[in-house]
């Protein structure tokens, strides 16, 4: 709503500026905090420099992405002392809200139209297993007992925002995905050069990143 005022305050001729948001829904474009280390994680520095060198919509989208990253970092700074289940609950509550980027780019409206139009997204709300596109993700063997003891409420049905660890693409049930048994990230099969047939013969899959790590001696 305040985009015109925000745009005017981000003068590229000024020093490194940051966009701060506050709990009372106020915002401020200001210089970064001087104390080191800072009390809270700091937002992206120098958002004003690229303002005149990009399309207005692209620049606003870039600031929105950085703002979302900062909001998540602040939330999990406060969540550091929460339990595992409480952190999951916190992230679920955050994920129910639109991101700044979704609002700026119009993705929020398109998602709302999908929901209101009765589009069935159930086919894309489950991650594939290593071996089939339709099956949900396989449980991690080492976590089974612990999850049962903690009463951890797995919500494996909502994976529409799962991102590929290589290309960053959003999960789609139309494509084959494979999960790393070490870091538990998910990947397009094509991004890590694994086909469904090849996945059938893999007992424990390690992504390229985990495979390249040398074991500690």
Automatic annotation (TrEMBL):
Q: Enumerate the Pfam families for this protein.
A: Alfin (PF12165), PHD (PF00628)
Which keywords describe this protein according to UniProt? Chromatin regulator, Metal-binding, Nucleus, Transcription, Transcription regulation, Zinc, Zinc-finger
What Gene3D superfamilies would the database entry show? Zinc/RING finger domain, C3HC4 (zinc finger)
Is Electron transport tagged as a keyword? Answer: no
Q: Which residues form the PHD-type domain?
A: 161-213
Compartments it resides in: Nucleus
Which InterPro entries does the protein's record reference? Alfin, Alfin_N, PHD_AL_plant, Zinc_finger_PHD-type_CS, Znf_FYVE_PHD, Znf_PHD, Znf_PHD-finger, Znf_RING/FYVE/PHD
Gene Ontology biological-process annotations: chromatin organization; regulation of DNA-templated transcription
TM ranges? none
Source domain of life is Eukaryota
Q: What is known of its domains?
A: The PHD-type zinc finger mediates the binding to H3K4me3.
What does this protein's UniProt record list under function? Histone-binding component that specifically recognizes H3 tails trimethylated on 'Lys-4' (H3K4me3), which mark transcription start sites of virtually all active genes.
Q: Which PANTHER family match?
A: CPG BINDING PROTEIN (PTHR12321), PHD FINGER PROTEIN ALFIN-LIKE 1 (PTHR12321:SF181)
Give the protein name, as stated in the record: PHD finger protein ALFIN-LIKE
Protein's organism: Aegilops tauschii subsp. strangulata
